[in-house]
Write a structure and sequence with these properties.
The protein has 242 residues and is α/β, with parallel strands linked by helices. It has 2 domains: 189 residues, Vaccinia Virus protein VP39 (Rossmann fold), CATH 3.40.50; 39 residues, no CATH class. It contains 11 helices and 7 strands. The protein has a 7-stranded mixed beta sheet, with helices on both faces. Strand 4, helix 8 and strand 5 form a beta-alpha-beta unit. The protein is globular.
Length: 242
């Protein structure tokens, strides 16, 4: 994560409202994580070693540990506040998680001595990186993966065409306002919703890639069997195998 996005999340008020805001802005989050888990070609009884890039509130890690009950996760995040909230969410599952605070652009340093991983996964985190940094992180991911291991990512993309992107943004605004149902003043109308999203994305340094760019980055990092496993508008589940 960039320094700016780390600082954006290490704020108590921001963390407390994170999951509620995610439900408003990304109602497909559960579906995306489920798809990411289902495409992994491992037995559910396998004792997998996994890394969560940007563990956040522990949403993805919780589902991974329940889906693969004999597995363990190394959860990385740049914000202590997020790590604390993840521990609260995970309760007894937290005993199967090693928490690491740091910038996952320095992945090799943060995972020193851990050994190889069978799975590296991430959700709504890598779009904070520019393409160069994302490629550098994924090269480190490939080095850490065991042969046959998987990288899966649930994240945001941007349309190739400005006209299409503009239309998708209008659909996005309408969906957020409908789900907010006038109960949140931030989303009272399209203008206030747009301001909120613009401020949020500027504060967090969002830099989503296009679909073609995203898949190209995965391939250029050394992954094979690269695919877009699920796509709706501006949200994508992609991944590949070592």
């Amino acid at each position: 994560m960039t320094k700016r996005s780390i600082e954006a999340y290490d704020v108590s008020q921001r963390v407390e409202s994170y999951d509620a805001a995610m439900q408003l802005m990304h109602p497909n989050r559960l579906k995306m994580v489920q798809v990411a888990l289902e495409v992994l070609t491992f037995s559910k009884t396998a004792a997998l070693r996994a890394i969560d890039l940007g563990i956040g509130t522990g949403y993805f890690t919780e589902r991974f540990l329940n889906y693969f009950p004999n597995s363990k996760v190394l959860g990385i995040d740049g914000a202590q506040a997020m790590i604390d909230l993840a521990k609260t969410r995970l309760t007894s599952l937290a005993s199967r998680v090693q928490f690491v605070i740091g910038d996952f652009r320095s992945l090799q340093q943060l995972t020193g001595g851990v050994g190889t991983a069978d799975v590296v996964f991430s959700a709504y985190a890598l779009h904070h990186l520019n393409r160069s940094d994302k490629e550098a992180v994924l090269r480190q991911v490939v080095e850490l993966l065991a042969p046959g291991g998987w990288f899966v990512n649930a994240d945001l993309i941007v349309a190739d065409s400005p006209e299409v992107e503009s239309h998708l943004q209008q659909l996005r605004l309408a969906g957020i306002m409908e789900r907010a149902a006038s109960s949140d003043s931030r989303f009272a109308d399209s203008a206030s919703t747009r301001r909120f999203l613009d401020d949020l994305e500027a504060n967090e340094g969002d830099q989503p890639l296009t679909l073609a760019e995203d898949l190209d980055v995965l391939r250029s990092s050394g992954l094979k069997n690269v695919s877009a496993f699920w796509l709706e508008y501006r949200e994508l589940v992609s991944g590949g195998q070592k």
